[in-house]
Amino acid sequence: YTSTDSGVNWVARETNRNWYGVASSSDGTKLVATVESGQIYTSTDSGVNWTARDSNRSSRVVSSSADGVKLVTCAGAGQIYTSTDSGVNWVARATTESWRSVVSSADGVKLAAVGLNTAIYISTDSGVNWSAVETVRDWTDIAMAATDGNKLVGAENGGRLHVSTDSGANWTPRDSVRAWQ
């Protein structure tokens, strides 16, 4: 479903699928959506028309640069994949892990990913190379300030929120121990 009036009204698009993740360019024209155990779909007209991309895989979350050109997705039990052409082509990156979340800065240069019993992984070159920057934990989610990618927060299941203000170089635990999801 898409909306052109901030969610007041919705129009059904595409077909019924097991949609899992969605991301948008900052102007809402370029969209990317994942189907669990299915293909990745892209739209260049705000969701009116969709094109199936890549092969079937268990892609879950997906993130987009502000212009919708650089995309990143992760498979629940697989690799991280990046695209530099709005989802037409995808390249396998990083190692095979139980990835749960991946995020992108506005320019698509800085990326961060977390998974089940992994470290927090950071890329500063649009996903070509990845570095483990935080302790192995049961990470459930990660968020990044879109502007420059310098500020991050990671959520640890049965643990705390962990915050970084220097692109992931250093992390500080915050708040109480909770079942963060």
Give a structural overview.
The protein is mainly beta and 181 residues long. The chain is 0% helix and 50% strand. The chain is built from no helices and 15 strands. The protein has a four-stranded antiparallel beta sheet, with no helix packed on it. A four-stranded antiparallel beta sheet has the order 5-6-7-8, with no helix packed on it. A hairpin with a 6-residue loop joins strand 5 and strand 6. It starts with 18 loop residues before the first strand and ends with a strand.
Distance between the first and last residues' Cα: 25 Å
The strand line-up of the biggest sheet is 1-2-3-4
Structural class computed from helices and strand pairing: mainly beta
Assign a percent range to the helix content. under 10%
Question: What is this entry, summarized?
Answer:
Helices cover 0% and strands 50% of the residues.
Tags for this entry?
mainly beta, globular
What is this structure's SSE topology?
Blueprint: E1 19-24, E2 31-35, E3 38-43, E4 51-57, E5 59-64, E6 71-75, E7 78-83, E8 91-97, E9 99-104, E10 111-115, E11 121-123, E12 131-132, E13 139-144, E14 152-164, E15 172-179
Antiparallel strand pairs: 1-2, 2-3, 3-4, 5-6, 6-7, 7-8, 9-10, 10-11, 11-12, 13-14, 14-15
